[in-house]
Amino acid sequence: VLIAVGRDACTRNIGLETIGVKINEKNGKVPVNDEEQTNVPYVYAIGDILDGKLELTPVAIQAGKLLARRLYGGGSTKCDYINVPTTVFTPLEYGSCGLPEERAVEEYGKQNLEVYHSLFWPLEWTVPGRDNNTCYAKIICNKRDNNRVIGFHVLGPNAGEVTQGFAAAIKCGITKELLDETIGIHPTCGEVFTTMDITKSSGQDITQRGC
Hints:
alpha+beta, FAD/NAD(P)-binding domain, 2 domains, five-stranded antiparallel beta sheet, 15% strand
């Protein structure tokens, strides 16, 4: 059983209405533009209080740093709220970076995407004889942008560690071709992303017979 208690945005009693800052009445969160600016030009908001953004501490820290640099240090870099590596630390970890497949289809159109996926069997599962083809890996590529990877998903042991490493490559604009040219470390879970050749649209079998 997974229990998500969530967070409350305590914005209704701090005087925002006095200065005219708008909030989402449904959840109390604050809508902002891509520079964390509210509808009142001199008021900014960062972190979990943002409407429609990720509730993750590292995201808030990064957004705060970049906002301070833009306001006082002559910087221009904005926080990237799309290519954020994150992990669900369930017994079988799930990690992701970039867009989920459903949102990628909405944004780019199914005809402009290629999805590669594979099941895999971690080496450490072979000795105790744990089930094969339980772990899963998927990348979503934008065909109109040189097959750039816009979504990364992995379900397996140490998914957080795997995702953190690939997140830097995604920020650098890694493509399917570059992944194919990357030499994998055998036998690791992350290696599966360097050997993917089955597309979801092909309907081919993705089950594996070994690690």
